[in-house]
């Protein structure tokens, strides 16, 4: 029997998380994408702490209108700015089981463009 979308994503997620882990110097940039919103957070897995968090529901981003891809780019730029303010220059990208295209790709490229190394 075929896997559902959620089961398939969960398997991919576990496969990614076996290899990707964040530290204080190089945290993990985790992306969550729902049908309407997108969030990104920088996580230090060694201490299980979230270092920075940005959502498409944040005040500065929600006020700006645009397509979901444009909003994902704004979230990427905002998380990159927060990371740089916290003194973080590098991160490892965790796409969280999502395919690397569309909003996830737009967010990652916006993060790189804003100066954070992935």
Automatic annotation (TrEMBL):
One of its GO terms (biological process) is translation. It holds the Pfam family Ribosomal_L18p. CDD domains: Ribosomal_L18_L5e (cd00432). InterPro entries: Ribosomal_L18 (IPR057268), Ribosomal_uL18_bac-type (IPR004389), Ribosomal_uL18_bac/plant/anim (IPR005484). The keyword Thylakoid does not apply. GO terms for molecular function: 5S rRNA binding; structural constituent of ribosome. GO terms for cellular component: cytosolic large ribosomal subunit. Keywords: Ribonucleoprotein, Ribosomal protein, RNA-binding, rRNA-binding. It comes from the Bacteria. HAMAP family: Ribosomal_uL18_B. Part of the 50S ribosomal subunit; part of the 5S rRNA/L5/L18/L25 subcomplex. Contacts the 5S and 23S rRNAs. This is one of the proteins that bind and probably mediate the attachment of the 5S RNA into the large ribosomal subunit, where it forms part of the central protuberance. Belongs to the universal ribosomal protein uL18 family. This is Large ribosomal subunit protein uL18. It comes from Balneicella halophila. The gene is rplR.
